């Protein structure tokens, strides 16, 4: 599934960027070598980052 239609960034690519340490949408765009266009995807990226961080917190307990 595409997260960013403007740049063709797929969910898998976002998850990989997060696993590699991205903590902000701009870091995901940087790893994809592009920039936000309409920014509709930023909320989805933030949610994915937050979900990942919460999962790590639960795993650490």
Explain the layout of strands and helices.
Layout: E1 2-4, E2 9-10, H1 11-19, H2 25-31, H3 42-60
Antiparallel strand pairs: 1-2
Helix pairs in contact: 1-3
Please give a structural write-up.
There is one protein chain. By secondary structure, this protein is mainly alpha-helical. It has one domain (2-60): BFD-like [2Fe-2S]-binding domain (Arc Repressor Mutant, subunit A, Orthogonal Bundle). It has helices at residues 11-19, 25-31, 42-60, and strands at residues 2-4, 9-10. The termini are far apart.
CATH superfamily descriptor: BFD-like [2Fe-2S]-binding domain
CATH class membership: Mainly Alpha
- Give the count of helical stretches: 3
Overall geometry comes to elongated
Strand order, sheet with most strands = 1-2
Distance between the termini: 31 Å
Strand and helix order: EEHHH
Number of self-contained structural domains: 1
Identify the notable features of this structure and list them briefly.
two-stranded antiparallel ribbon, 61 residues, mainly alpha, 3 helices, Arc Repressor Mutant, subunit A
In short:
The protein is mainly alpha-helical and 61 residues long. Helix content is 57%, strand content 8%. It has a two-stranded antiparallel ribbon with strand order 1-2.
